[in-house]
Write a structure and sequence with these properties.
Structural class: alpha/beta
Number of helices: 10
Strand order of the largest sheet: 11-10-9-8-12-6-13-16-15
Helix content: 25-40%
Number of strands: 16
Distance between the termini: 43 Å
Radius of gyration: 23 Å
Strand content: 15-25%
Mean pLDDT: 93
Order of helices and strands: HEEHEHEHEHHEEHEHEEEHEHEEEE
Shape: elongated
Length: 352
């Protein structure tokens, strides 16, 4: 008997909630959630918790008390079950082995080694497969994963803080280097650290590294540190900067030949006008799924001018500088606005 679409939406919504729990822990894999339903009730749930470990379908099946119910159940999963051997065996094979007859899939997997073959394998085994339930929501959840495989680059988030009159910094003298100029508030800083915990890498330019001496780690939130990246064409940055403390993996993009150290790698690129593309290609080759670009203004504007960005997170503090370093110029209408205890966050999305 055909299920009402509202029923499929209900259970796929729950699978999406579960999938979200994997954020920050599963890259370069996608976030995936799965629920198993028998006679209108959820009897099993699971999500992909950590890269290299069991997938959502495995965890959902393992959560069951009575596996004898599986042949009469429907499995809902946000992303097409894998059909190849990677870090774990194919989930499609497990579904077939457990004799699950009905499978509802949010969206096809864009990864070339899956890309429809998981659904095909299930159908060839006699499963009833439905694809496309809450497809837009499932793709949005894994926008990093889809961008990585379809555009062959990380998902790029630009981030900066600016004053109400449009400046990201004062004109600082050298003696004032070493500490950032705070524009927003504590809640905004927490939001930034949460963002860092959810993305794979974070990039700053030479001037920002020199002026602000940032750590680029996660401190005001629980989660993993992103891979730290800094551009230093001529290796002029001081070795005393926090970025070079070797406490967290760091890559320096430079034109010079330099000897790498533990947790401090030097990656040589040509600096021929395509350094942004070279950096993105390097990150793609290293399976870096997402990238935060924290500036400064020149670097951020370079990404904007090349339309190499997916989201821009602009924090606006209740301060006026009247003069200083101008904020990057971005066009479009914010897709999201949040009040952060007096500061504001505007999120833009690139329409390409």
């Amino acid at each position: 008997m055909e299920r009402p679409f509202e029923i499929d939406q209900k259970f796929m919504s729950r699978a999406l909630e579960l999938a979200q729990l994997g954020i920050g822990n599963v890259a370069p894999n996608p976030m995936v959630g799965c629920v198993i339903v028998h006679q209108g009730k959820i009897i099993g749930e699971g999500y992909h918790c950590e890269y290299g470990k069991a997938h959502a379908e495995v965890n959902a099946i393992n959560s069951l008390i009575n596996r004898d119910l599986l042949p009469e159940s429907t499995l809902y999963v946000t992303l097409e079950p894998c059909s190849h051997y990677g870090k774990t065996p194919p989930c499609a094979d497990l579904i077939i082995r457990e004799k699950i007859q009905n499978v509802v899939i949010g969206t096809i997997d864009p990864y070339s080694q899956v890309a429809g073959t998981g659904a095909e394998k299930l159908r060839n085994a006699g499963c009833q497969v439905e694809i496309g339930v809450m497809e837009a929501e499932c793709k949005e959840l894994n926008r990093r994963f889809f961008t990585f495989h379809q555009k062959k680059r990380p998902y790029i988030i630009l981030k900066w803080a600016q004053t109400e009159d449009g400046f990201i910094d004062i004109d600082r003298a050298v003696e004032h280097y070493g500490q950032p100029t705070w524009i927003t508030n504590d809640l905004s800083r927490i939001a930034v650290h949460k963002m860092r915990s959810e993305e794979s890498a974070i990039l700053v330019g030479t001037n920002t590294a020199q002026k602000d001496n940032p750590s680029l780690t996660v401190r005001d939130w629980n989660g993993s540190h992103p891979l730290r990246l800094v551009i230093d064409r001529n290796l002029r940055l001081s070795a005393d900067l926090e970025l070079f403390n070797q406490k967290s993996p760091t890559v320096v993009f430079t034109s010079k030949d330099a000897v790498s150290k533990p947790n401090l790698e030097y990656a040589q690129i040509p600096f021929d006008g395509y350094e942004i593309e070279d950096i993105l290609n390097t990150l793609y080759q290293r399976n870096i799924l997402s990238l935060i670009v924290e500036g400064g203004g020149k670097l951020l504007q370079s990404f904007i001018n090349k339309s190499l960005w997916d989201e821009s997170h602009v924090f606006i503090g209740r301060r006026l500088f009247q003069k200083g370093v101008a904020a990057p110029k971005i066009t479009g209408t914010p897709q999201f606005l949040d009040d952060l205890d007096g500061s504001s966050l505007y999120v833009y999305k690139n329409a390409y």
